[in-house]
Amino acid sequence: MNSTLWSKNLLHSLKPILPELVGLGGFLLSWQLGAMHYGSVVLPSPRETAIAIWRLATTGKLGDALLTTSFHLLVAFTLAVLLGTVLGILAGIKLWFKKAISPIITALQGIPPIAWIVLTLLWFGTGNAVPIFTITVATLPIMFLGAVEAIETFPTPLLEMANLFRTPRNMLLRELYFPHLFTYIFPSLLAGLGLSWRVAVMAELLSSETGIGAELNLARINLDTDEVMAWIAIVVCSIWVSEYLLLRPLRRRLEPWRHSQIPVNIK
Question: What per-residue confidence (pLDDT) applies to 181?
């Protein structure tokens, strides 16, 4: 009886994430079938990749590399979010500023990250500056465009009604300005986070002796396919952790109304 109740509770707790689990299971199954078809030399299986990850963790290489890459990512992503959001808000408020900065944002979007890496290698040499600078300039346009869209679509009638009823400014900020801004910023955060991880690994691979990218490059040189797949899996898991354990809980906390809507049954 207790086991049946435990099973029901487990199924109830897993129900919200059941689609994600089904998708993950399908991905792992496809991966296993591909490994069986091509062989472990070309495509290591999930089991072989997990063994390689465990080996990296027990030798300390995983912790050191993950810490270095996380430092690059945290500093650069924070800079990109702050600068991109502030510039986007100013551009949304001041039309002349938007016209002045739009060509620069377009140029930043058009320059591929590999070009920025080459330039920063010439400017700063090897070291932390290359991944931090590259991640910042690659992610900043995404945050800028999200902030501009938020300001330009601001619900003016709601603001006029709030002013009519003399709503306090702190309430306006908490209940109107910030929720609307965050609604448009959050998709940019998700897109920028994924791009930041990719750029961080690429920058470290080409310019650094530490970090996940550097370790990935070393595994490639040594023709260690298991370790290459292990580092790729670590990057993917890091993105999942950043999104599902950090950003999405933050969104649920800041936008509770999204998860408290009563479903409407249409007959």
Answer: 77
In contact, 142 and 84? CB cutoff 8 Å: yes
Label residue 135 by pLDDT band (50, 70, 90). very high
Count the neighbouring beta carbons within 10 Å of the beta carbon of residue 108: 18
Cα-based distances in Å from 150 to 76, 180, 184, 223:
23, 7, 5, 47
Cα 68 from Cα 210, distance rounded (Å): 7
- The residue among 144, 230, 233, 241 whose CA lies nearest residue 184 is 144
**C-beta neighbour count of 84 within 10 angstroms:** 26
Among candidate residues 102, 100, 106, 109, the one with its CA nearest the CA of residue 195: 109
pLDDT of 186:
83
Which CATH class, in words, describes the domain spanning 44-255?
mainly alpha
Tokens 């791009």 -> residue = 195
DSSP per residue, 30-91: HHHHHHHHH-TTTS--HHHHHHHHHHHHHHTHHHHHHHHHHHHHHHHHHHHHHHHHHHHHHH
Contacts of 178 by beta carbon, 8 Å cutoff, 6+ apart: 254
Q: Are 214 and 31 in contact (CB under 8 A)?
A: no
Distance of alpha carbon 20 from alpha carbon 243, whole angstroms: 13
H helix or E strand, kind and range, residue 136:
helix 129-152
- Angstrom distances, CA of residue 182 to CA of 48, 161, 176, 260: 41, 21, 10, 18
pTM value is 0.78
What is the pLDDT of the chain when averaged over all its residues? Answer: 81
If pLDDT is split at 50, 70 and 90, which confidence band does 266 have?
A: very low
Alpha-carbon span 227 to 54, nearest angstrom: 10
